[in-house]
Design goal:
- The protein is mainly alpha-helical and 287 residues long.
- It starts with 28 loop residues before the first helix and ends in a 9-residue tail after the last helix.
- This is ABC transporter permease.
- It holds the Pfam family BPD_transp_1.
C-alpha cells in the first residue's frame, strides 16, 4: 500500500490564487467636473449655435436688423424691462393665469380620465361628447369665452382650463386602458379588490402617461394664454408682445418671446422632475 505521503506532487494542494488587483482610484474631482461640463456643453450646443447665428446674421446684413435685431440688443432690452419692473409685472400676471388654469385642469381632468378609462359604461356614454369637443380648437372658442365671461381674468383662465384639459384627459384615459392585462389578472388572482387593484396596479402603471399629458398641458397653458392676452388684456406677456409690436419696440417684442420660451422650458423641467419623483419604479431604457 502506498503511503499518503508518497503520492505524487500533482495531488498536492493547488497553488493559491493571487488576489485580484485592487481597482485604481476613482475619477478625481477635476475630472468629474470636466465630464459634467462636457455633457452640459453637448446638450446646449444647439442653443449656443442659435444664439451665435442670431447675433451674426443681422450684423452681417443678411436680414434687416430693424426687424430682427441682434441678440445682444434683445438681451439689453430684456434687462431694461427687468430692471424697470415691467417684466416682473407681466410675468406675474401671465403665470397667475397659466398656473391657475393648469391646476384646475389637473384637478378635474385626471379624476375624470381615471373614471372614463376604468368604467366602460361611462366611457361609452361620454365618448361622443368628447369626440365633438376634442376636435374644437381652443382659440376658435376665444370669442365665445369672451362673450360669455367677459374680458376679465375669468375668460382667460377658463380658456387655459379648456385647452389644458384635453391632453391630460386623453392621456389619462390611454394610460388606464394601456395597463398590461397580465398585471391585472395577477393582482386579481392574489385577491385584490377593485379599490386595491386600482390603487396598487392601475394608477402606478398609468402615471408616466398621465405626466406626459400634464407636460403637454403645461406647454398649451402658456401658448394659449399668450394668444388670449392679446385681446383685451392690460398686463401679461401676450400684452407686452402685442404692445411692443404696435409701438415698433422690436427688441422689447423679442424680449417677451424669449421670456415665454424660458418659462416654458422651466415648467417642462419641473414637470419632468415631478414625473421622476412619482414613478421611481420606472426603469430608464436609455440609462
Amino acid at each position: 500500500m502506498v503511503d499518503i505521503a508518497e503520492r505524487p506532487a500533482r495531488l498536492a494542494a493547488p497553488a493559491a490564487v493571487p488576489p485580484p488587483a485592487s481597482a485604481g482610484p476613482g475619477p478625481t474631482r477635476p475630472a468629474r467636473l470636466l465630464g459634467l461640463g462636457g455633457r452640459a456643453l453637448h446638450r446646449s450646443a444647439a442653443l449656443l449655435a442659435l444664439a451665435a447665428g442670431w447675433e451674426a446674421v443681422p450684423r452681417a446684413g443678411l436680414v434687416d436688423r430693424v426687424f430682427l435685431p441682434p441678440l445682444s440688443e434683445v438681451l439689453t432690452a430684456w434687462w431694461a424691462l427687468l430692471r424697470g419692473g415691467q417684466l416682473a409685472d407681466h410675468v406675474g400676471a401671465s403665470l397667475t393665469r397659466s398656473l391657475t388654469g393648469l391646476a384646475l385642469a389637473v384637478l378635474t381632468a385626471i379624476p375624470l380620465g381615471l373614471l372614463i378609462g376604468w368604467y366602460r359604461p361611462l366611457a361609452d356614454l361620454l365618448s361622443p361628447l368628447l369626440e365633438v369637443f376634442r376636435n374644437t380648437a381652443a382659440l376658435a372658442l376665444l370669442p365665445v369665452f369672451v362673450l360669455i365671461l367677459g374680458l376679465g381674468e375669468t375668460s382667460k383662465i377658463a380658456l387655459v382650463l379648456y385647452a389644458c384639459s384635453w391632453p391630460i384627459l386623453l392621456n389619462t384615459i390611454a394610460g388606464v386602458k394601456g395597463v398590461d392585462p397580465l398585471l391585472i389578472r395577477s393582482a386579481r388572482s392574489m385577491g385584490l379588490n377593485h379599490l386595491r387593484l386600482f390603487q396598487k396596479v392601475i394608477l402606478p402603471a398609468a402615471v408616466p402617461t398621465i405626466f406626459t399629458g400634464v407636460r403637454l398641458a403645461g406647454a398649451y397653458s402658456i401658448l394659449v394664454l399668450v394668444a388670449a392676452e392679446m385681446v383685451g388684456a392690460k398686463a401679461g406677456l401676450g400684452y407686452l408682445i402685442n404692445y411692443a409690436q404696435y409701438n415698433f419696440a422690436i427688441p422689447d417684442m423679442y424680449a417677451g418671446i424669449i421670456t415665454i420660451s424660458a418659462i416654458g422650458l422651466i415648467v417642462n423641467q419641473l414637470l419632468v422632475a415631478g414625473e421622476r419623483r412619482f414613478s421611481t419604479w420606472r426603469v430608464d431604457p436609455t440609462a
